[in-house]
Structures are given as structure tokens and as C-alpha cells.
Write a structure and sequence with these properties.
Strand content: under 5%
Number of helices: 11
Number of domains: 2
Shape: flat
Order of helices and strands: HHHHHHHHHHH
Number of strands: 0
Structural class: mainly alpha
Oligomer: single chain
Keywords: Membrane, Transmembrane, Transmembrane helix
């Protein structure tokens, strides 16, 4: 076996060198992506732990203010609100400002409901992260082991798609046809990227985009199919540009929390 392998290497030095270079690059990419993924997971864990600690303190402080209703408990609550400042949502900030105006206990109860919901959400996120990182079952182990392969596959697919676009560009008879081919390639690339992004968002709360935003996203993803019917791929590109403009200007729906 080893003799056959040595003979193959000796007879195919160029192919062997190419395989060695590609293999080295793939191993390096795997290590880099694994390091990035591990670092990102640790940062995410620390952030969720920090936010959970802050919001838990704020929850107990609000409860204390509602029951005692004195200046000392209120000042302590204000201090904790300041510490939670970078992580407060727009709705939470609005209710806090409403409370500043009249120190209304009903408004503070609404804020308490939002903070309790935030604490529960952060606890669920923390449990999921810890289970993913410390789970001893085979599925989690294989998932963590294979995680770096996905960005490698996407990188290779991106290179292949760019190469295909360049080849198609060179086959065009004139500049207009080449521009259409280029636009088609770009729209296909954008659609693929959005599909992958949407699949990753299914695990997070960002999946709540609202009916209108989802319709716009779906329209942008399937827009390259128009090339089959109208033989003009600049229109799908314009649709996707309009999609980006709409998504950048519109906001996700706010979740209403009732006390």
C-alpha cells in the first residue's frame, strides 16, 4: 500500500502538490472558522449571562419599589436602569420615560411585566447555549464538530458561483446581454444568501419579521425566476434593490407584553 502511494506521488508530482496545497488550505480554514465559532459562542454566553444578571436585579428592584414606594428603593431602581441602559428595548425605554413623568405605579407595573418577560427569555437563551456547549450527547458533539464545514462549503460555493458568472459574462454577444447575465448571477447570489440567513434566523427571536417584511423577503428571493418568463434579469435585480431599501427603512413588529 505504501509502495503504491509512493509510486503515485513520484509519478504525479504536480497533482500531489496541488492536493497538498488544497488540503493545507482546507485544514487552515477549518481551524480558523472553528476558532471564530468558539469565540463567538463564548462571547454570546458572556453577554447573555451579563444581561440576565442585570435584568434580574432590575426585576427585584422594581418589585421592591412597588411594595415600599420610597425614595431609597426608587433611586436604587434608577441606578439599575442606568446599568441596563445598553440592553433596553425601545418599548422599555418608552415606558421608563413615561414613569419619570408622574411616578405612576401602573406604568411601573407595565415595566415590571416587560422586565419579567425579558428575564424569562434570557433564561431560555442561557439554557439553550449551555445545553449546546456542554451537552454530552452524540448529536451535539457531531454538530459542533461539523459547524466549521458550513462556512467552508459556502466559501467554495461562492468561488464557484463567481467563476460561473465570469464564464457566462465572457459568452455574451454584446454588453447588454453580459449585463443581464451579470445581474442574474448577482440576484441568484443574493437569493442564496437570504435563504441561508433565514434558515439561521429560525433559531432566534429575529425570525419575527411581520407579514409585510416576510412577503418582501420572499419576493426578493424568488425574483430571479422572472428571468425564465421575461428573459430580462435587470428587473429581478431592481426588485432586490427595492427589497433592501424597504427592509432598511421598515421596522420589525414590536411584541406586546401584557401585565
Amino acid at each position: 500500500m505504501w509502495a503504491d502511494l509512493a509510486a503515485f506521488i513520484k509519478a504525479n508530482t504536480t497533482e500531489t502538490l496541488l492536493i497538498s496545497i488544497i488540503g493545507t488550505i482546507l485544514v487552515w480554514m477549518y481551524k480558523q472558522f472553528k476558532s471564530m465559532i468558539d469565540s463567538k459562542e463564548q462571547d454570546k454566553l458572556r453577554t447573555v449571562q451579563l444581561k440576565l444578571g442585570l435584568f434580574t436585579k432590575l426585576e427585584t428592584s422594581i418589585a421592591s419599589t412597588l411594595h415600599l414606594n420610597n425614595e431609597q428603593s426608587r433611586q436604587h431602581m434608577f441606578t439599575l436602569i442606568g446599568e441596563c441602559g445598553p440592553y433596553l428595548s425601545d418599548m422599555q425605554r418608552t415606558i421608563i420615560r413615561d414613569y419619570y413623568k408622574a411616578f405612576d405605579s401602573a406604568v411601573l407595573s407595565s415595566l415590571q411585566a416587560l422586565i419579567v418577560n425579558e428575564v424569562d427569555k434570557l433564561k431560555r437563551q442561557l439554557d439553550i447555549i449551555i445545553d449546546d456547549q456542554e451537552g454530552a450527547d452524540m448529536i451535539n458533539y457531531i454538530r459542533r464538530l461539523c459547524a466549521p464545514f458550513w462556512p467552508i462549503i459556502l466559501s467554495i460555493a461562492l468561488i464557484i458561483m463567481i467563476w460561473i458568472i465570469a464564464m457566462v459574462w465572457s459568452q455574451g454577444d454584446n454588453l447588454w446581454i453580459r449585463l443581464n447575465y451579470l445581474a442574474l448571477g448577482i440576484t441568484l447570489l443574493v437569493s442564496t444568501t437570504f435563504i441561508i440567513s433565514m434558515l439561521s434566523l429560525l433559531k432566534t427571536d429575529n425570525v419575527r419579521q411581520g407579514a409585510k417584511r416576510w412577503l418582501v423577503i420572499i419576493a426578493g428571493i424568488i425574483s430571479p425566476a422572472l428571468f425564465i418568463f421575461i428573459d430580462l434579469s435587470l428587473i429581478p435585480l431592481l426588485i432586490q434593490i427595492a427589497m433592501f431599501v424597504y427592509l432598511s427603512r421598515s421596522k420589525r413588529p414590536i411584541e406586546i407584553i401584557r401585565p
